[in-house]
Amino acid sequence: MGLGSGVIARNPVEDLQRIAFLLERASEPTYRVRAFRNAAAAASSIPAEELTERAEAGTLRELSGIGEVTARCITESLHGEEPVYLRRLEATGGAPVAEGGATLRAALRGDCHTHSDWSDGGSPILEMALTARALGHEYLVLTDHSPRLRVANGLSADRLERQLDVVAELNAELAPFRILTGIEVDILDDGSLDQKPTLLGRLDLVVASVHSGLRMPASDMTPRMVAAIANPNTDVLGHCTGRMVMGSRRRPASEFDADIVFAACERFGVAVEVNCRPERLDPPKRLLRLAVEAGCVMSIDTDAHAPGQLDWLPYGCERAAACGVPVERIVNSWSADELLAWTATHGFRP
């Protein structure tokens, strides 16, 4: 049966994007994800009639960005069939979340640590936001990197200000879903933050993270981290140990006095991040339990650099549940208005 014979076609662009999403969630190689995202972009850039004609004629691969596998997926979609590639991914899309982790995941309303292609993420802000909304989020905090992290195309003050204008425009379009403004700001060697304080003060939420000097002695790292935590602009302490537990960038956890650091987080009202990235899973469970005992609030975040990674929250939720993190102390279980009220007032009050 030809494509013009009354077949109700699927949307091949959506199918290709779904495949890319599932590949990202499964931590598949970037080149494989990019192949499907590039094919989706190519398919969406030509008229539907031409796409159908090319599928019938077998000439889809003449289009830049479309290869053998993606052409087959497009053709199957246009025939009204779920692509075989997609069907297999959906069938093996992830392990079930343990009951405690599932309860925490169901309570989360947003994600407080995400990146776009304005720094080292792979997708535009809008695509990240639309994916977060499709996952059931009420909000997404956009936290691209600060200027010192040049390898990650960190945002200068001027670029960050331009991003704020873009976010305002997108929020007008996406309401009631909200993109909250933010940054992942580097903690410099002296504990100061890598962006203008006045600009940090304009943001909805600031994640402060150590990205350099990770092997400095605990006697130096501890006061460095405490200085950043005490900064009134800091809301979340990101991936506190900086460890990498898998992949080609494996590295041990930074050394610091966890009792002192978590006591500072509790005193100054700064959330300890439970980072969901599979290669980080930071902090380790031992330290996560210490943070719970210290009375810290938490933020369970994906640190997503691509849309499919926004569905990594269960990794952190399982670990948080195993360590006894109370749901009421997870800041992204709160509504956007509650979160903003907290970021506006949570600093230390003598």
Mean pLDDT: 93
CATH architecture of the largest domain: Alpha-Beta Barrel
Shape assignment: elongated
What is the CA-based Rg, rounded?
22 Å
H/E element sequence: HHHHHHEHEHEHEHEHEHEHH
What is the helix tally? 14
Strand order of the largest sheet: 1-2-3-4-5-6-7
The CATH superfamily of the largest domain is identified as: Metal-dependent hydrolases
- The name CATH uses for the topology of the largest domain is TIM Barrel
Reading off the top of the CATH hierarchy, the class of the largest domain is best stated as Alpha Beta
Distance between the termini: 76 Å
The largest β sheet comes out as: 7 strands, parallel
Number of domains: 2
